[in-house]
Fold each of these.
Amino acid sequence: MNPIYDRLEIYLIAAAFLLAAGFYGLVRRRTLIGMLISGELIFSAASLNLMAFNRFTVQDPAVGQIFVLFIMGLAAAEVAIALSIIIAVYRNYRSVTTRELSELNG
Amino acid sequence: MTAFPAADQLAAGIFVICLLTMGIGALIAVLSIRIIHSVCGLAITCVGLAGLYYFLHSPFLALMEILIYVGAVCVTIVFAIMLSEPDEPAKAEPRAAALAWSGVAVVIAAAIFWGLCHLGTRGNWPRPARTGDGSIAEIGKALLTNYSMAFELISLALLVAILGALAVARTGRTRP
């Protein structure tokens, strides 16, 4: 039996927990910034899954690290865009709660 | 053969601490009322995640996780919180509806968690032989040879994201 930090299942369960927590937050949060934070949790779950499989089931362990690095870069770009959109929404509506952004809701 | 007698137990203890840090941070991030506590939870999650990356034999990604997520993403979100007022209103919806929706969310999240745990623990994952050691030198070589195109595209995406963020946040600034 491998030690606890050397077993693939532990990492998969941790990533599943992160995904579930992020999904719960995405459904429950009522502000745009809260939903963005939950989205970041989901990104982290995907990165952890990739890294776990990269450590245990891949021949060349550099590949997964590079892909997680790309995920981090894209997440940073996504956060920059999303936050600027949130700032623009706040300037127009004076609010970032999702319930009040209902101009297109006929 | 390790020099220190209880090295395995010590490493396991540190691993469990990292796992708990990650889990508690995620719970703070999704369950707290005030949004600034939520950002702190995200930062705590990323610190725990960096520890897990270290246990996955990737100190480079652990450093990058702290640098990018805690240092850049969380700080940017804190700036956005200061510029807007994102705290949730006290009674935005009726209490029964709120309870029902959180019940539905908990059920779906638990189903996702259970399903993924089932898949992950039952799966018979292959264990092929390793060809490289995944060191920083190998990552650097791969970034500049096999993945140079994607590397350049990432830099282009970041440039476009910065310009787009500036353009989007600039509109409406002259309005009252």
Amino acid sequence: MTMDNILLEVRNLKKYFPVHKGIFKRIAAHVKAVDDVDLYVKKGETLGLVGESGCGKTTTGRAILRLIEPTAGTIRFRSKKLATAGKAFEEVDIATASPPILKALRRDIQIIFQDPYSSLDPRMTVEAIVGEPLRVHGLAKGVEWKEKVQSLISAVGLNPEQANRYPHQFSGGQRQRIGIARALALDPELILADEPVSALDVSIQAQVLNLLQDLQEQFGLTYLFIAHDLSIIKYISDRVAVMYLGKIVELAETEALFLDPKHPYTEALMSAVPVPDPDYRLDQILLEGDVPSPLNPPSGCYFHPRCRYTKDICRNESPRYRDLGSEHFVSCHFADSLNLKPLRTGKS
Amino acid sequence: MEIRRFLKNKVSFFGFLLVTLIIITAILSPLISPYDPLEQHMVKRFSKPSAEFFGGTDRYGRDIFSRTLWGTRISLVVGFSATAIGAILGTVLGLIAGYTKGHLSKGIMWLTDVFMSFPTMVLAIIVVVAFGPGNQNVVLAIGLAFTPRFIRLARASTLSVSEQVFIEASRATGQSSVGIIGKHVLPNIAGDIIVMSTLWIATAIRLEASLSFLGLGTQPPTPSWGNMIREGMLYFMRAPWLSLVPGAGIFFTVIGFNMLGDGMRDVLDPKLRGRLT
């Protein structure tokens, strides 16, 4: 991976939460929420991160932003804003960045939250919310600040005349737009979108997704897009990473992943996507059992107790996360030999 | 919106009216009291309430009604300033205890628990005994006695606000901890603090009266409701008005602030929203 257009490169990222036990609060075990995640995000693309609840998607995102402290790993970010004269960018390791560097990096990486209700301070006006990042970094004052805020509010499709209203006067979709405007305020390179539409109505979801795509084009944004809905991921992503139990099991270009999945978990996930065709015979691959506890993950391949292709090696040996060529990463012993079903699309 | 609902609520409206009346009385007491509170009418000692002396007179022939009106001032000043001390100190410590996690937070809560185990009155008496009687020390005593209660409230509110995503959002913009506390946490817990303060003003007024009754607060001859009741107690069978008139002052002030506080809580508490008209 020596490509020049890589914006963010995450290597061996781990986040273990200690579990305390007994009166002396000794550490009894660790919940391995994120366990050795490797990924990179290219400039201008949308990398989708998909997986079921509790697989560590959100924790991965939060750790990349250092909103929670990662246990181990490197998070290299190529910042244009931090570049010294004569250089195109400055490479910074977010995982070990000092507080002032971290504050400067906030201008490069922003986040959009899942819940449009609790992510906006109810005591602040829309103007104050959207303009807060500008104030924090001292980027604009007075009239200039007001104008900048107004233009951000228009950019996300809201009426700038409503700038003095409070969040509770807006609908869920509008509130999510306010959150997007706040994320745009610092003119970031990368936006972490943490399930930005899963709390919205289906009709509003499409609007917000389209807005995100328009903004990407307009401002040259790069997205790390977390979701659990495969159809949304397929719609918005250039590349997709599938997570299971704190690990990335497969990462590939959207087309390649959906048409030629290499990991049994990806196959099972895709078979669960509903098809809008009443004549379609459901042959969903039902995964047996529950997601194992990240407190006590299975031996070998984490997926083996639920995998229908399990062989002995799966129980004993953890598969290597490898590139099958053309940037199709997978961690399965039999990725080359399995013939897995692609995403069904109904009759057509 | 909120003001209209507040005034529509009978309890809060009546409380608001009563408190306004009491504050006006305190401000205007030199103008509206018929006599100087210290002026002695020796010939007319122990007069019954009459057209001449609305509240009767005490053993020095001082007008009880005028003294009660003047007593409003001390009660309100002590009530407001003691609560302010408790609220400010308690909010600052409570914010620290709620927002930070570590030894400082644990230390604050440990001290709070120790002080909470004393009844407010006992705590106030200890402080007054330590610093000596007098109004300033009474304010300090009540303020310090209130502080742990405000720490508890401020910490609990801070904890629940800190869980909200908008705090994380602010952190993601690069806002400092001090900025987050000042811009997001404090405005969101202010409502709780204000409501609790209003309710505790009534308690502070009661405590001031109690301390003065015990001879630890306002010193005679300055009139305060507490020391007036104490003086009157000696002659209660002969001249009950000596205690009853200042007692009525305490009664109406305390009930006024309680009703105001209850009304404000009902209006500001979102969980009750819509259920009250």
